[in-house]
Each structure stands twice: as C-alpha cells, then as structure tokens.
From TrEMBL:
It is found in: Cell outer membrane. Belongs to the TonB-dependent receptor family. The keyword Signal applies. Residues 1-24 form the signal peptide. Keywords: Cell outer membrane, Ion transport, Iron, Iron transport, Membrane, Receptor, Signal, TonB box, Transmembrane, Transmembrane beta strand, Transport. Residues 253-691 form the TonB-dependent receptor-like beta-barrel domain. Residues 42-152 form the TonB-dependent receptor plug domain. It is a multi-pass membrane protein. It comes from Undibacterium griseum. This is TonB-dependent receptor.
Length: 733
C-alpha cells in the first residue's frame, strides 16, 4: 500500500526534524557483557547483548536467546525458533499473547500467528541487525506501547549504523540443505552528519522431517541524521516469508506413527485416498495427516524517531510508524471438496493489516525529580477472510486468488490511545530511587461482517488509572534491593481467535458481561556484583483476573466458531535466580533457576458442565526450569555449551495430560581473527543444536489447549528438531 506522507504521522516527524535546533551525541556503544542484570531499575529487568546474539545460530529468533533467562520458556519445532506456527514464548506463566513486544519502541503487537495487530520479530528485522534485547519479566516500563502486556515485555533495539564505511557478510550452511546469506553495507559517518546501512538476507532451509521448505527474504535499512543537539533516526524493513508446516501430533499419534511423522506431500495419491477413507500404513484417521499446510507473510515496517534535546534537562522523543501486512495460511483440508470433484480443497485464512501510529515521550530533569509523560495513538485496519480453492499437487506456496467459496470475511477497525505519566525521585544522596506512575489505555474495536455468520459489533477495553510503583535502594556500590507493583490490562483482540470469532448470538450474549483481562504484579529482589560474580534473586506474585477463554465447539483444525467465557482468576508466585561467574581469565559460567507456581483459582462452566480446574496448574507452565552455560573466549578461539532443563507441562486444563520434562543441549564454537587476508573481523563458527539428539515435545497447544485428554488423542503437539549442524563464515571489508 502506498503511503501518503502528507496524511501520515511520518510527515509530521520529518517537519519537526528540520525545525530541530541542535546536535546530539550518538547513543552509548552497545554493552559488551552477555547479560546485564538491570542495575538501578525498580523492577526485574535483564538485557541480552549483541555479543550473546552473535553466538547463536545465525537466523535464530532473538526470542530463543532469551530462553536462558529466569522465568522464560521458549519452544519451537525448528532449530532456528523462527517457524511461527510452533513458536511459543512465555514468562512466569504468561503466554506470548499476554505479553508486549516492541522494536525501537514501535509496537509489534502480541506477535500472534493469526496476524491482527503486529508482526513477529523474525519478520520485523534480521537477527544480525539486532543490537540488544531487554526483558522485563513482570511489567514493562509504563510508557511501553502495548495493550497486551498482562505479563512482561520484550523490547528489541536495532544496532546503529557504524561510523566507518564497511561491507559485512556472512554465509551459513547446514543440515536440511540450509543456507543463509547476509550482507550489510554501512556508509560510515558522512560530512553531513549522516550515517546509514542497508542489508539483505536470504535464507533457504528444508524441513527436518517430511517435505517442504521454510524460506525468507529480508531487506533492512536505517539512517541516522544529526541535527544540532537532536537526532533523526528512520528505518524501513521488508520481509517475505514462506514456511511449509509440520503436522500437529498427539501423544497417541507419536507412539503409533513416530516422532518424525509428518504430512503426505509429495505423495498426492495417498492424500486423496485418505480423504476417501482409504488408509495405508499405520494411519487410521482422517486427521493423522493432510497433504500439506503452509504459512505466507509479507510485511513492510517503517518508522522515524526524532529525539529533540532542549538544553540539558528536557527532551522530547517522537516516533511515527507504518506497518502493512499481507498473509495467507494454507491447509489442504479433507473436510471440503474441490469443484472438480476431488475430495480435498485448499482452505485459506487470509490476513491484511494497515497500521499507522505515533508515540511521544517528554522527559524533564528537575532537581531530584525525573518527570516523564507521553502518549501512544494507533489506528489499525485488519481484514480476515476464510476462502476455499481447488486443490492441486502442484506448488501452491504463493498468494492464491479467485477462490471458489468464501466462508467468512470480517473487517476490524481498532483505535488505540494510551496516556502515561511518571516521576522518578532520587533521595538519600541517590541511594534511594522512587518511581510513581500510571497509564490510561483505551482500545476500541469495530467489527463488520461482510460474509458469513461471525459476529459484528463494538467492544471497548479501557482503564483510566493503571498504577505502577517501584523503589530501588543501593545498599552499597555493588548491592541493591528493588520492589515494584504494577497493574496492567489486556485489550480484546480482533481477528481469527478473538471475541468476534463467535456467532452473532453468542457475541450478543457474552459482550455485555465480559471484562478485559487484568493483572496485578508484585516484584521484590536483590542484585549483586563483585569482581567475579554478578547476579540477581527475585520473588514475585501475580493475580490475573477476568481470564477469558474460548470454549471450542469442534476440533481446532476444523475452525468452528468458539464461545468466549470469563473463567475467573489465576494466581502465580515464584522465585527467579540468575548469576554469571568469571571462573578464570577466559572462562565464565552462567546459571539461571526458576520456580514458578501458576494455578487456576476458579472453576468454569462449559455449557451446562462444570469444569473443575481450581487448584490446577496453568497449561504450558513448567514449574521448574534450569539453564547452565559455560563459555570460553580468547582473542582467537571462542566456545559456548549450554543445557536447559524444562519441567513437565500440562496441555489440559484439568491436568490429566502432559508432556514429559526434558534436557536439551546446544553448542557454539569457532575461530576468529581481527584481520585475515584483508578481511576484517573474520570468523568461522560451528553450531550444533540439540547436541545429544534428544527426542522431546517442544510446542504444546498448537491447536489450542483441551479441557481433558485421558486417551492422549488431542492433536495439539509438535516435536522438537533433532540434532542439527551448521557452519558460518563471516567477515568485513
């Protein structure tokens, strides 16, 4: 979609830029340590640096690098953690859809697979261009542009263009015919005070089981312009991603068909026979396999930020952005037939998004007070369509058009405004910091049904006063205590799985009684550092009220409308610890331990049936997680080996079915030279994912969570990738 700057917030930013009076220093250089433990913050915060990101397999989702941190659980069916249908990220029992995500302060929504208000970080920017990731396990900063962060927030920050001209390149080869090419050109600092970079990424990889590929092409660009004491930063990112799906499994299917069972492709005749009820091998069900499924996404994301400095004590940062998305999810369904009589059709779920927004933040230093206030406003148009096309064994991994039938079509217009203000007060010779703030979110959704029987109407989620309080007390230069309290709200979601996925009758009955989900979180902790040891210990308590749940009316894959009900409270309490030891000059050891107890506090009614889940553990919420990581680095050699333990996880609300606990170990090692045959910063890096070839269930709830599964037949699990090998060559000229 073409952007009319004269009508766009970006135009206002550019006008403000040219009116800016002065010149600002660049942001500080990126931190070089692997994990920063949030010193000085009034809440639990940890940073992962570019150095840590660089040791991961190139192309790895930055969310996967956060899996080492306390409180975090990350799951995916592929070695990169980028296969979106399978990606699951949670912190302290809150899942991905209950958290907030931003890139350079631009909201990414809840990064859900069924796009409605954002995009996944793996499409927003190439992992090589990320400079830092900040995780707030309990609550993000009060000004974070998110209305889904009941739990924590994750903030991604792109790296800045370099002051020196350079061309950076990296080439990865590996298992499953993987190759990934990354190239970036930095202009260096020009005489006009401008610096910029352009980068391109191309990745091709076959699935580790079955047939099909997961491919992506990306373009990233960023420019920084100094304007006196101010600075204008703008970026444009584009992504074109196509991924062929893995088949969802049940425990019974994995036992009968094997961990490496997948869809039929390219065996077209077997898929047609199965659709007719003629099964071969160990297949005994229509849903044991389909011919193929896939997901296609195209995204454009651009933004501009003007950081105005008015003297030493006042600054105004204004960001405007635009995001457009086109997406299709393909499924060869044996539940519908093609117009030519074949017992299979291609069912698509089709998405489009057009978002425009602006964020403004004013900060003033007044003696002992740091005052901060601002707003976020966004307008989003989201269209959702269910279409059917004639099936064919030919390649259909492209955007289909001219359907035979449309099941439903809805348009959603979402208007978001959020105001916030806070004061950070420094007392006792800066030993004590008090933080007092609040935000006022308001999210209005208007849904229009064009085709079908799904619900239309209006819903508003708003809170006039969501407080956030915190303190930090420095016991010494090396030790500090922190305490925080926050209250958050999750707005209703438009799209394929939100309240408007109900029938009109069900929506009319439920819309008057449902309330937006809210949470209250208390954090208390201790941070410490010595010459050889740095770390933190935190305890937390969260109460989650008015939990909304879609009660399924048929199997998840069929896509029948759900009914939304308020199922009461969840309470979470736990302890997180993390520490990094410098064992010797070249050796360090990182450990993190999490104990998380998340339980449902209320039963609920499924129609006329009481579902007794009070006291049961929250689904996909491991009680115990432990991460250990040993690192070695000299001027020429580097290496890291890490292992993660994840406790058993329930995928039913009644806790009668779970997947076992497991350990997974990964290895990264290599050689580097500052200059080799004219190539600067040359390195060769080897990565081994799942070093000991562990068989385990990674993603659970891929087709939603079940009330009960006593026979282990709920088809809502995905297996983790087996051992994978990769080598990467990189350098700069």
């Amino acid at each position: 979609m073409a952007i009319q700057f004269r009508r766009s917030p970006l135009y206002l930013i550019l006008l403000q830029a040219f009116a800016a009076p002065a010149f600002a220093e660049d942001a500080p250089a990126e931190v070089v340590s692997v994990v920063i433990f949030g010193q000085g913050n009034t809440r639990q915060v940890q940073d992962v640096s570019k150095k840590d990101l660089a040791l991961a397999l190139p192309g790895t989702s930055p969310l996967k690098t956060l899996d080492k941190l306390p409180g975090v659980s990350f799951q995916s069916a592929d070695p990169f953690g980028a296969y979106e249908w399978s990606t699951r990220f949670s912190a302290r029992g809150f899942n991905q859809s209950q958290m907030g995500f931003t890139l350079d302060n631009v909201p990414l929504g809840d990064m859900s697979y069924g796009n409605n208000n954002g995009l996944h970080i793996s499409r927003a920017i190439s992992s090589e261009n990320i400079g830092r990731v900040t995780l707030s396990q309990g609550a993000g900063a009060v000004g974070t542009a998110s209305t889904s962060n009941l739990g924590g927030t994750v903030q991604f920050f792109s790296s800045a263009p370099t002051d020196e001209f350079g061309v950076t390149g990296a080439q990865t080869f590996g298992s499953n015919k993987t190759y990934r090419t990354f190239a970036r050109v930095d202009t260096g600092l020009l005489s006009s005070g401008t610096k910029a970079y352009l980068s391109a990424t191309r990745q091709r990889a076959e699935k580790w089981k079955g047939t099909g590929s997961q491919n992506q092409d990306m373009f990233n660009s960023k420019v920084v312009q100094k304007l006196g004491n101010s600075k204008l930063t703008a970026f444009f990112n584009y992504s074109d991603r196509t991924e062929v799906d893995y088949q969802d499994l049940s425990i019974e299917m994995a036992n009968r068909l094997g961990y490496d069972w997948d869809n039929y492709a390219p065996d077209w005749q077997r898929a047609v026979n199965a659709a007719k009820g003629i099964y071969t091998g160990k297949v005994n069900s229509l849903d044991d396999a389909y011919y193929q499924g896939s997901g296609l996404r195209k995204d454009s994301l651009l933004g501009a930020t003007l950081d105005n400095r008015f003297g030493e004590d006042v600054s105004l940062k204004t960001t405007a952005y635009h995001h457009s998305n086109q997406g299709q999810g393909h499924w060869y369904t044996p539940y519908s037939s093609s117009s030519n009589g074949l017992p299979i059709a291609i069912r698509t779920t089709e998405y489009s998004i057009s978002r425009n927004g602006v964020i403004a933040d004013l900060t003033a230093e007044l003696g002992q007070h740091t005052l901060n206030a601002g707003f976020w406003a966004e307008s989003s148009l989201h269209t959702l369509t269910r279409n059917f096309y004639d099936a064919t064994p030919l390649d259909t991994n492209y955007f289909l058009s001219n359907p035979n039938k449309t099941g439903f079509k809805q348009n959603f217009t979402t208007t978001t405004t959020q105001f916030y203000a806070q004061d950070t007060i420094s007392l006792l010779a800066d030993k004590l910091k008090l933080n007092v703030g609040f935000k006022s979110p308001n999210v209005k959704i208007n849904a229009v049904t064009i085709v079908g029987t799904r619900a239309a109407g209006d819903l508003t989620a708003s809170k006039n006063f969501l407080p956030q309080l915190g303190l930090n007390y420095a016991l010494s230069k090396s030790d500090e205590l922190f305490l925080s309290f926050s209250q958050n709200m999750r707005a209703y979601q438009p799209g394929v799985n939100g309240p408007f996925s109900q029938t009109q009758t069900a929506f009319s009955l439920s819309s008057a009684s449902i309330k937006p989900e809210t949470s209250k979180t208390v954090d208390v902790g201790y941070r410490f550092k010595t010459d050889n040891l740095v770390g933190s210990v935190a305890a937390y308590f969260t109460r989650f009220d008015d939990r909304l749940m879609a009660v399924a009316t048929c199997a998840g894959i069929v896509g029948c409308p759900s009914t939304f009900v308020n199922v009461g409270q969840v309470e979470t309490k736990g302890i997180e610890t993390a520490a990094m030891w410098t064992l010797a000059k070249d050796w360090s050891l990182f450990n993190s331990l999490t104990y998380n107890d998340s339980k449902y506090k209320s039963n609920y009614m499924d129609g006329t049936t009481l579902v007794a889940i009070a006291g049961k553990q929250v689904v996909d919420s491991p009680k115990l997680m432990f991460k250990t990581e040993l690192s070695y680095e000299t001027p020429q050699w580097f290496g890291r080996v890490g292992a993660k333990y994840t406790d058993k996880r329930f995928y039913t609300y009644t806790n009668d079915a779970s997947v076992p606990a497991y350990w997974v170990m990964n290895l990264s090692t290599g050689y580097k030279q500052k200059n080799l045959a004219g190539i600067k910063d040359f390195s060769v890096q080897f990565n081994v994912e799942n070093l000991f070839n562990k068989q385990y269930f990674s993603t659970i709830g891929s087709n939603g969570f079940q009330t009960s599964d006593p026979t282990g037949t709920a088809q809502t699990l995905l297996t983790g990738a087996p051992r994978q090998f990769f080598v990467t060559f990189s350098g700069k000229i």
